[in-house]
Amino acid sequence: MKKFNVEEQTNKVIKFIRDYYEKNNLGGAIIGISGGKDSAVVAALFVKALGSENVIGVTLPCHSSNDCLTDAKLISDYYNFKLINFNLTNIFDNFKEELKNLGDYNNEQTKNSDINLKPRLRMATLYYLAALYSALNKKTYLVAGTSNKCELYVGYFTKGGDSVHDISPLADFTVEEVIKIGEYLNVPQKVLYKAPDDGLSNQTDEEKLGVKYQEIASFMEDENSVDSNVAIKIRQLHKANAHKFSIPTYYKS
To answer: Which of 38, 47, 54, 177 could form a disulfide with 28 if both were Cys (CB 3.0 to 4.6 A apart)?
Structure first.
């Protein structure tokens, strides 16, 4: 396994962001700040690349724990960027109320729909705010993605939700590598080392997936490096979510 040079890679990502913004005459970044390590590291990278005055973080609670808001504030205070709180709880509840007009569904039937609605509402909000602040500040804001390589490999994201963004700085880094970048950028330890979760389902990511992120990273490097049952689970996740990676499109012949 090739040694991960955190200083080199961090500087390359910062340059990647800065160069893309300069080339396309862009101005700022809108980042959903969950209170977890991925969004914290992305925020730190954008602050380094663009300056804190060009970064806007957004907390998007939706029947969420207050801990998420506290940790998001910790990150915004540390890196000195603007933080907006946009509470989606009432919007979600109104959506669910409107659903009653279509029929009577129990919680088990709507469980998956409910979980995926939340990131879709969040992404719609981020894009609304990106357009709003672009108009207000007379410069173009992009929505930054926060998914890492391990999540993407097993399809742990919502189509039309956190899969939608304008620039993706972490997509080629494993969870372990993201943590190393976070350490290099001095992301507060309370956020960097806490168990990752989506803030939506009351489960950690690894509990939902049934495998550990380190196992996914090892599998991507060498499929024979993990227990056979773990390998089967990872293959199943990757295959089951393959439809998320591309949209089948018919081209007339």
So the answer is: 54
Under the banding of pLDDT at 50, 70 and 90, the label for residue 74 is: very high
Cβ 146 vs Cβ 162: under 8 Å: yes
Q: Residue 218 region, left (φ>0) first, then alpha (ψ -120 to 50), else beta?
A: alpha
H helix intervals, the chain:
6-23, 37-50, 66-79, 89-99, 107-137, 149-153, 175-184, 189-192, 205-209, 213-221, 228-240
Backbone phi, then psi, for 41, in 5-degree steps? -65, -40
Instruction: Please count the structural domains in the chain.
Output: 1
Each residue of 154-207: pLDDT tens digit? 999 999 999 999 999 999 999 999 999 999 999 999 999 988 766 555 678 888
Asked whether residue 181 is assigned to any structural domain, the reply reads yes
How many CA atoms are closer than 13 Å to the CA of 34, on its beta-carbon side? 23
Residue 215 counted as domain residue = no
Distance in angstroms (rounded) separating the CA atoms of residues 143 and 123: 9
In DSSP notation, 136-174 reads: HHTS-EEEBP---HHHHHTT-S-TTTTT--SB-SSTT--
DSSP state for residue 197 in the 8-state scheme: B
CA quadruple 4, 6, 7, 9: dihedral, nearest 10:
80
